[in-house]
Amino acid sequence: MVDAALAQVGKNLNEAMRILGDGQMEPDAGTESRRFSRTSIPGPLQGDGQDVTTILHLVHHLIHEEEDEEDGRDKASQPIQNVGEQGHMALLGHSLAAYISVLDRERLRKLTTRILSDTTLWLCRIFRYDNGSAYFHEDDRDGLVKVCRLAINARYEEYTTEGYAVLSSRQPVIYQSASCRPGLGQHLCNQLGLPLSSLCTVPCNTIFGSQHQMDVALLDKLIKEDTDAGKLPLLLIANAGTPEAGHTDKLSRLKELCDQHGIWLHVEGVNLATLALAQVTSAVMGATRSDSMTLTPGRWLGLPAVTAVTLYRHEDPALSLAAGLTSSQPVEKLRALPLWLSLQYLGHNGIVQKIRHAAALSQHLLLKLKSVTCIRTSDGLEKQISLVEALKMVEDEQNSPVVLFKFSQESNAGGSGGSVDGLCVGEKEVLDTFNRWMGEQLAQLVPASGVDVVELEDEGTCVRFSPLLTAAVLGTQQEDVDEVVQKLLELVPMMSATMNLRQDFREETHRHAPSLTYIEELSWPGLGAVRYESQAEGADESRRKQEQKKINDALLTKLQELDTDIFFSTDPEFVTEENCIFVGMVTDDVDVSELVDTISTLGRDIEESGRLLENMTERVRKGILEAELQLQKANEEKLLEEGMLRQLPVVGSVLNWFSPVESSIKGRTFNLAAGSLDSTDVTYSTKVQAGRTSLQDIPTLSAKRLSGQRLFRRPGAGSDSMSETSSIGPADESSGVESFTMSPNIHPSMSMSQPETAEHAEAYVRPAGLLGNPEQVEAEEERQPEGQEEDLSGR
Asked: Annotated Gene Ontology MF terms (predicted)?
């Protein structure tokens, strides 16, 4: 017979997950308005109670509130945990724990003892840890704190009575690897009340072996030195899968050393999950002999809100109770309930299958990466090693669930269209930048893969694939790994070409000095950075910077409007230089010379356009003053010539009827180019403005590239990609607007409707898309477009 309360708990959990998952049930209008009013700002508790459905909808809105406000954001970059049926069992465990806690004491004691015993037995058998006990804790570091306290109680017999006073006689020493989690040793000392001098960090191998494995010989030397100094070596923290690289320490040798000096050996790391598999490497198998090890089955199996577990061996239950590893409170034993339910739901085969699936994903990616050029995997990131150690490392790597890879220009034999001589200085920083960009791109393009970027001390920036920590959560499949490799095949040629062309870009920029300045920015993942320098003379520093910012902002806008695949960006947040234009990744068919020429020409055109506008403003102001004086003078002459009577409204009309007077006052036209007033005699005599040319008749720069070819591409290079990526089609050609490539040698052919001398030239304002050099500007100013003459006649 099923308990009605238990059935109701399961029913409520299913309903809550359904509402939080899709939010299909909508509350009434009054509840909805009250819900939204509460999410804006914190407020007082509602006077009337609310039902469960309303509260769950409020939680649903709080979870998805940011997504509702930013609908345009790419949701693919925010992978959400895949909560499957096993996840529901873990969540059910938290609900049942609250229900079980209200049972009578005797029934609660029996139930919690059974749950704790079952879970401990299952975990010890799955992970090959015989005769072990288990401590369940929320913080994955808390188990290490408890076993260290147990080691203190075991080594200092009077610690239970004398406390920390006994530590002053022989200071305890805790050893940790340099590859341990950052801050782990400091947290341990803070929780135990030990000084930081009790923490000893053991360096990793520097000559032979993995650079992420603890140096056993140096550890032995440090232990002997501490013993001779009157200190007590207490505990050693080893790794079965370092946090960054996933490497395993020599656990068998470390265990022998710890037994020799009476040191407690604690092991942690992601590679401990492989103990559940049928085939386990000898390095990881050494963890089964350790005094304690911390497991995180929640992350390995995709179980939300499941505690970490520390398995340990100790024969004295009193010391375990004093260290906090066991508790006499039955309620605390309920921490194991979610894991107890989840392990039963998955079964032994299901647990092994999930771990095997993650390990298979790693091996599949490692095999695929072997054939990708310019990509180095974890086996190529090590220094010189002996033959025996090499064989062991090959065995570990082939079975390691963590894959590290990075882009390396050294693997590229030659390159197309560029040189790498200039990358000797700061080459490592540039490679780190490119690898960081590659990892971020892969994480964004294939979010289900779970790849991330790690910073290693010697290898630099690498991309890490650790499916044991992400596959069960994100639901990673083999198709996702294949997609990662496919994206790599697209990104690597672009990165290699960009690396090769960086020096060419630097040299071309120096060739255009002083108008262009190359900015050495090693943290920018792209071709490089450049700044257009204003050629104005005599301006103060603040005025010059303002003018420089204005020109470079306009230049960036012009470059972004060009028909090209190259990405242009403004100053990133991490860059100290200001008013720069950053050029992104390029392909190997890019003409760097044409690219830099275009940047220089566009910048010069923008600067001269701004200078022309300033001059025109001054001319217009002076012209207006002159026009006012001439119009005033013309009115006075008209008054003297016609007399006062003709100015009267009625009398003037009668006089003009009997005796018409032909006015000698001529119209005026304002020449914007010259800033002067000219007569309109020619206009009224020919009934047309001289040199008038409509804006539609102004020719644009002719294109010097094939149809469908984007800017900055060398002819004959990358024709296939150009045909696929081209956005120029018949519709664009019929629109009458042509794309063009700016070059210093290109001069648009000018045609005017009527010839006109320079003295009577009328200015016009060039369209925003029409570019040219100073000679073109001078030629264009000799034309007279329609709509820019003003009849300044006083009539």
From this structure: carboxy-lyase activity; pyridoxal phosphate binding
Q: How many helices (H) and strands (E) does the chain have?
A: 25, 19
**698: part of which helix (H) or strand (E)?**
none
Angle at 326 between CA 324 and CA 327, to 5 degrees: 90
Query: Looking at this protein, which amino acid is placed at residue 46?
Result: Q
Which residue, 528, 325, 560, is CA-closest to 418?
A: 528
CA dist 244 and 453 (Å) reads 9
Two tokens, residue 695: 């804006």
Crossing angle between the packed helical segments 184-192 and 142-155, to the nearest 10 degrees: 50
- Please tell me the least confidently modeled range out of 116-120, 222-226, 283-287, 760-764: 760-764
CB 172 within 8 A of CB 232: yes
Distance, in Å, from the CA atom of 85 to the CA atom of 10, rounded to the nearest integer, reads 13
Please state, in angstroms and rounded to a whole number, the distance separating the CA atoms of residues 564 and 602: 15
- Asked if residue 590 has pLDDT above 60, the reply is yes
Q: Enumerate the β-bridge partners of residue 233.
A: 173
Q: Percent of the chain at pLDDT above 70?
A: 66
In this structure, how many other beta carbons lie within 10 angstroms of the beta carbon of residue 530? 26
> Tokens standing for 354?
């999930």
- Rounded to whole angstroms, the Cα distance separating 481 from 523 reads 28
CA distance 255 to 288: 10
d(CA 581, CA 561): 14
In the structure encoding, which two tokens stand for residue 37, read together? Answer: 């009013």
